Amino acid sequence: MSESSKSSNQILGVDIGGTKVAVGLVDQDGKIIAQGRKPMIATSTPEAGLEAVIGAIDSMISSAAGGIQSIGICAPGPLDPKTGVVINPPNLPCWRNFPLAEKLVAKYRVPVKVDNDANAAALAETRWGAARGFHYVFYATIGTGIGTGMVFDGRIYHGHTGSAGEGGHVSIDYRGPVCSCGKRGCIEVLAAGPAIGARTRAKLAGGAQSAILDLANGKVGGVSSELVGKAYAAGDQLAREILQETVDLLTPWLGNIVDLLDPDVLVMGGGVAAMLEPFFDDIKNHLPSWCVNPRASEIPLVMAHYGANAGIAGGAALCSQDPP
Ligand code: ADP
What we know:
By secondary structure, the chain is α/β, with parallel strands linked by helices. It has 2 domains: 3-117 and 309-318, 2-Layer Sandwich (Nucleotidyltransferase, domain 5), CATH 3.30.420; 130-304, ATPase, nucleotide binding domain (Nucleotidyltransferase, domain 5), CATH 3.30.420. The protein has 11 helices and 13 strands. It has helices at residues 46-61, 100-108, 117-128, 187-191, 193-205, 211-215, 225-233, 237-261, 271-276, 280-286, 310-319; strands spanning 11-16, 20-26, 32-39, 70-75, 79-80, 85-86, 98-99, 112-116, 136-142, 146-152, 155-156, 265-269, 301-303. It has a 5-stranded mixed β-sheet with strand order 3-2-1-4-8. A hairpin with a 5-residue loop joins strand 2 and strand 3 (32-39). Helix 7 crosses helix 8 (237-261) and helix 8 crosses helix 10. It is globular, with a radius of gyration of 20 Å. Adenosine-5'-diphosphate is lined by residues 143-144, 193-194, 197, 224-226, 229, 271-272, 274-275.
């Protein structure tokens, strides 16, 4: 059993996903000092899932000079951030109402915080990243899905039951395609990576000419959102069209967010956001058409600071003592 020194100021950030556990040592300035990853055992018993997480934590604690101060964990929701109970995430079938925080406190004897990925990443951006110094922060990460988090005056907004922040499941079309959540027209089902890939494949199958097909060795089935990004960077017209369509979906959605929250800043993370960055000016220019807020165009739209390490930084931010 690892007993950690409370005098250390290093935080252990843990990012639990369906296939891997990423861990990192993070200092009080949000700098990731060391990191690693281990496989997650998501489809076996609750104990096997816990052991996988403990194995990942132990591998990092052994390299933490002076031990660790606390452990912050990002996990897929739904979960209860107040109690640290993981409720029933679809990609972690091993855990149903699993008291993750309680188990880890019993083992490591340090404070343990648990929150969902996007909430935690939003906090990391506010504490240490692209939203530092802002009071009202809206963060979105666009990848397989669209996760969002809101941080107001340095605190994650959780809502009444802890379920707040599901901006990816805000619908922009009640007649739209059915999302994995069961609702229609969620921005996630329309504009996340899989939707971009699917829209591209449909156009190519319909006979559209594009370098994207060459990048996929002529196989329409092999076309992904990443290849659209590569083709766009090489000047491909169809790729530009696809990305413009994606931006045309995201802009009214961001307009809804701005009218609801009037945030100080909009932060975008995830691989798809990086691909869309050349279109940020276009989004900002068209935002006023989708807002009643007369000052919508003043709100900065910026890329997230943390890329692939958003989960590790997010976990650590949950335990950071410094107010933003
Ligand atoms: P997640 O953690 O959300 O699963 P991933 O990075 O694995 O995120 O990405 C998943 C989705 O995002 C896929 O549909 C993928 O094609 C798309 N995606 C990821 N990175 C990029 C990128 N750099 N450019 C374009 N699309 C990307």
